[in-house]
Amino acid sequence: MTGTETGRFAPLLRWLGLTLVVILVLQMLAVLVGVDWSADAPRPQVTGPLVALAPLGFAGLLICLIGSRLDQPHQQRTPLRLLIAVLSGLLALGMVVAVPMSLDGGAGDVARLRNLEQGREALKDARAFRADEAQVTSLGEQLAQAGQLAADATDEDKLRAAEKMVDDQIAQMEAQLKTVEAGQARESQQRFIGGTITAVVLAVAFVLLAFTAVL
Questions:
Q1: How deeply is 35 buried, as exposed, middle or buried, from its count of CB atoms within 10 A (0-12, 13-18, 19+)?
Q2: Helix or strand or coil: residue 72?
Q3: Coil, helix or strand at residue 201
Q4: What pTM was estimated for this model as a whole?
Q5: How far is CA 70 from the centre of its chain?
Q6: 14-73: per-residue pLDDT in tens?
Q7: What is the 3-state secondary structure (H, E, C) of 12-68?
Q8: Is the separation of the CB atoms in 201 and 95 below 8 Å?
Q9: Cβ atoms of residues 205 and 87 within 8 Å
Q10: DSSP letter at 147?
Q11: Contact 9/73 with Cβ under 8 angstroms?
Q12: CB–CB of 32/66 below 8 Å?
């Protein structure tokens, strides 16, 4: 690439990089404006979207730096490179702050945690009911009185029918609870990989970019 071509290409890279940074800022503002920050609302889940947007800022700053290096290869520090270093440092700090927030991200869904705890309590109560022979026997009598058993059903038939009903309910509750817990575990793993680990990698990348801009 000749010097003339480099002179034309470098400003284009700078403006392209700055455009990406502006888009990053606008998208971050959109995320922050779109959440309910009132005291009574659950903690807003903004860590994931912000970490997902951070690579856009990294690409923009890197393109700016490449354009600056091509345009002024012999100057070590320029106002643009200092700006890149400052912005990279701020974004690195933001990624460091995002790490503990992403680890604590699942605590914000109060309703889901409450429903899960209620499901566990209901399953515990159902098992306790199943272990109480008197209550199971009473349920068998209720089934007979409701006409759900044959008129000549014996006490043993009533007991078996009640036990089967309770066992079926317990099995259904266990299956539902396992499904919810498995989904929660998958979301936790996704949040750890896409949030925590990504934030750490991006923090290191922004620190390296900041040093590259001024060295």
A1: middle
A2: coil
A3: helix
A4: 0.67
A5: 39
A6: 889 889 999 988 988 888 787 666 655 555 566 778 888 899 999 999 999 998 888 887
A7: HHHHHHHHHHHHHHHHHHHHHHCCCCCCCCCCCCCHHHHHHHHHHHHHHHHHHHHHH
A8: no
A9: no
A10: T
A11: no
A12: no
Output the six-digit token pair for 83. Answer: 């700006």
Residue 194 gets which letter from DSSP? I
CA distance 8 to 25: 27
* Residue 95 CA from chain centroid, whole number: 15
How many CB atoms are closer than 10 A to CB 66?
A: 16
Q: What angle (nearest 5°) sits at the alpha carbon of residue 181, between those of residues 176 and 186? A: 125
Amino acid in the structure at residue 25: V
User: In the numeric block, which tokens belong to residue 121?
Assistant: 């309590």
Structure-token pair, residue 140: 């068998």
